[in-house]
Amino acid sequence: MNGSAATWSTAREIPGVVLAPRQLRKTVSIALVVGSAFFVMNQLGVIMSGHGTQLVWLKAALTYLTPLLVSNYGVLSATRRPDTGPSTAHDNDEGVAT
Predict the structure, then answer these.
(1) CB 3.0–4.6 Å: which of 2, 5, 85, 97 could bond 89 by disulfide?
(2) How far apart are CA 28 and CA 18, in angstroms?
(3) In the predicted model, is pLDDT for residue 40 greater than 60?
């Protein structure tokens, strides 16, 4: 893991960043740890009591999907390259073109 993380500036580059083995290991690990903790707190009792309906299982899946999406958002926020395209105006501190 000595190399720098992949970066992105267009939507077409996003899959390459989030599916890179380095990032995928991190985000899946986060999803498993956080998702498991939330699953135990929120769904395990219902399932163990025999009331595991389709809705409960859908909630269980979302329990793991949510931290996966949040951690990927963090990766994408940290690896975005600034747009270095040509500019016709510069913004001042208030965000107004000058």
Answers:
(1) 97
(2) 10
(3) yes
